[in-house]
Structure prediction request, 225 residues.
Amino acid sequence: MYAERTKRSRTALLYTTGTIILALGVTYAAVPLYRAFCSATGFGGTPTTDPARFSPDRLYTTPDSEKRKRITVHFEATSADTLPWTFEPQQRSVKVLPGETALAFYTAKNTGDKDLIGIATYNMTPEKVAPFFAKVECFCFEEQKIRAGEEVDLPVFFFIDRDILDEPQLDAIDNVVLSYTFFKARRNDRGHAVPDASEEAIQKSQGFENYELAKQAHKLVPPPS
Prediction:
């Protein structure tokens, strides 16, 4: 009981901290913190990438989680018009139980005649599942250089945290969608690879188009590599 209260207090503190970060979102320094907050909490449909969630005691099913209906994770892929790549999931969906790990693959092929660097953004729907969707390994926000005519496999290793069982309002959700969008990369002023696209396109690909503070953050600094 004490451990559970401590855990919930820690979660509340995280969200409170996030609120403060959002209030500072218009400042340059707050932008990386804002993005870290999104990845740590799943805000705005951003799947969780907090390493603390990947401890061995989280990566297995329990009798309670095995009673739940399996959740179908659907995979979607889009590539920007300016990037001559084909990009698609190798599987359309997988079914998982909370606490059960799964490995999925996407395939990207450079159909152009030049070597190109791409960078992918991602988001999840429905947004309220994102805090419980944890990605252990992912190709998002990393430079992906593909030679002309080359085809590569891109892995996504993930699980749905068992804490989702503590949220009765999510019991009826048995379908979620993980979407990736590949953009042609460019170098920002600090030499980092960022999507070479309009702010509107980048925001939409991450599910931020409905969050005003997220828009302000994007206008200041493009997504980090």
User: Anything to note?
Assistant: Helices lie at 2-23, 30-41, 63-67, 199-206, 212-220. Confidence is low (pLDDT under 50) at residues 1-45, 213-225. The longest strand covers residues 175-187.
